[in-house]
Write a structure and sequence with these properties.
By secondary structure, the chain is α+β, with helices and mostly antiparallel strands. The protein has a single domain (2-124, 169-195), classed as Alpha-D-Glucose-1,6-Bisphosphate, Chain A, domain 4 (2-Layer Sandwich), CATH 3.30.530. It is 43% helix and 24% strand. The chain has a six-stranded mixed β-sheet. The protein has a two-stranded antiparallel ribbon with strand order 1-2.
């Protein structure tokens, strides 16, 4: 939404308040990006379509990407209303391409403004985190219960369990966060490259 009052432009890029989106923003798993280009909308869309293979970008769609012979770096959907793309997985590419970029474009004067939402969090991670949390709660409860029965509780093992839990929770988070920042940099570069074709 844009408001214009005496040559002052106020741009609201955030959607209505949503607790999940607010949490993802605080965790840096959801970022918004606005890019301005000096290019007509139809030209930009046609050039972006050339760089994006039409296809599914679901969680299990990466399985056979490594066998694709396409030279395009991205896959997803591009049309005149907007786009939803994901970076294609390549052979020997050890980066986790988890982030999905979805955006819309509009023209203001001679500038094309691209509003992009980059989301690194997938709904599949919610059951994973619930399962891991339940596993550690049950494991630690059994561990403490068994220690009380024997009379000798090996307390030195507890920090190792907690360290392992930290890795199990932290590693996926760091991979998702890195994927978001990497997608943000790559989109800036890719969109700038499209103006030079």
């Amino acid at each position: 939404m844009h408001l214009r009052q005496k040559h002052v432009f106020i741009t609201y890029t955030n959607t209505p308040p949503d607790r999940m989106k607010d949490l993802l923003e605080k965790l840096h798993l959801l970022q918004y990006q606005t890019i301005r280009l000096n290019l007509p909308k139809t030209v930009f869309v046609s050039r972006l379509r050339e760089q994006v293979d039409e296809g599914s970008i679901g969680i299990f769609s990466d399985s056979f990407d490594v066998f694709s012979s396409s030279k395009n770096e991205y896959k997803g959907h591009v049309d005149l209303r907007g786009f939803r793309i994901k970076r294609r997985k390549r052979l020997f590419d050890f980066n986790m391409n988890l982030a999905i970029a979805s955006g819309t474009y509009r023209e203001e004067g001679e500038q094309l403004i691209i509003d992009t939402e980059i989301n690194g969090f997938s709904g599949v991670m919610i059951p994973f985190y619930i399962f891991v949390a339940l596993f550690y709660v049950i494991f630690i409860a059994i561990f403490l219960g068994a220690g009380e029965m024997d009379g000798a509780m090996p307390v030195f093992v507890l920090p190792f369990i907690l360290l392992h839990a930290l890795f199990m929770f932290g590693l996926p988070y760091l991979l998702m966060r890195g994927s978001v920042s990497r997608m943000q940099r790559e989109l800036e570069r890719e969109f700038f490259f499209l103006t030079k074709q």
